[in-house]
Amino acid sequence: PHIGLRLRARKIMAEIKNTKNLLDAGSGSGIYSFMLAKNIEHVEAIDISKNNIEQSQKINIFENINFKVGI
Prior knowledge:
alpha/beta
């Protein structure tokens, strides 16, 4: 991923140390969900776009991410 995304993900991780569960509301393509899933026990990723969720589910390699369509 783009270096800016990695830097933002590192900043987020620094702020949420010791967090076991994370809600990624407005997850879009799931890029942050994927990056943060390496250090979080469970990620709940929600987006209003069914297409975004379907695409994220297709490329997801993490068992600890749950993608859902929702608002």
